[in-house]
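hey so i finally got around to running the thing on that chain from the lab meeting. sorry it took forever, my laptop kept dying and i had to restart like 3 times. anyway pasting the input first so we r on the same page abt which one it is
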Amino acid sequence: IYEPIKNSEGGTDESAVNITPNAIAAIIDFVKNATGKKIISNESGTRSSSAALTKAMLNAFNTAGLEYCIWFSGDGEGGAKALQNTDASLRANGEVFKQFMAQQKQQ
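ok and heres what got predicted. didnt touch it at all, straight out
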């Protein structure tokens, strides 16, 4: 799942700072109801470097109860935005990701 979901044709959308309302939960619920299995995500990410968008996605996955969510962290041809710069320093979205993971570890 990549946000913004409305940007299904790919490409970066730096104007996106909010997740598509209820979309992540609806996708997860649909797959869960269709399969009866626990849901994981084998690839997620953003098409924006917005820290707020990254945090909102992480919260949505957490609220939905995903046990595993693999985050793609690279500047991709489809518009994906990495959590880090080429020198390995974290971008603002990477800092939010790091803080979120640290909070989850403490719980």
